[in-house]
Amino acid sequence: MIFRRKPKKPQSVRHLPKCSFCGTQRGERGVKLIAGGGVYICSECVSVANEILRGHTPPAPMGT
Ligand SMILES: [Zn+2]
Fold this sequence. Notes:
This protein is α+β, with helices and mostly antiparallel strands. Helices cover 17% and strands 9% of the residues. The protein has a domain at 17-57. It has one helix spanning 43-53, and strands at residues 33-35, 40-42. It has a two-stranded antiparallel sheet. A hairpin with a 4-residue loop joins β1 (33-35) and β2. The longest helix has 11 residues, at 43-53. The chain is elongated, with a radius of gyration of 19 Å. Bound molecules: zinc ion.
């Protein structure tokens, strides 16, 4: 007898895409998410990245 194996479908958990950098979910604080290759970046991180690219380093989030 030949058994046809049914392909196991991983239980698709519907989760909102979130920023791979800061973890902000889409819609949070009105941010937009830009999808990359399996990652997302939010508009806030984009602006931070722009600042860095322009030569302005933002204050470190961790202050000692
Ligand atoms: Zn972000």
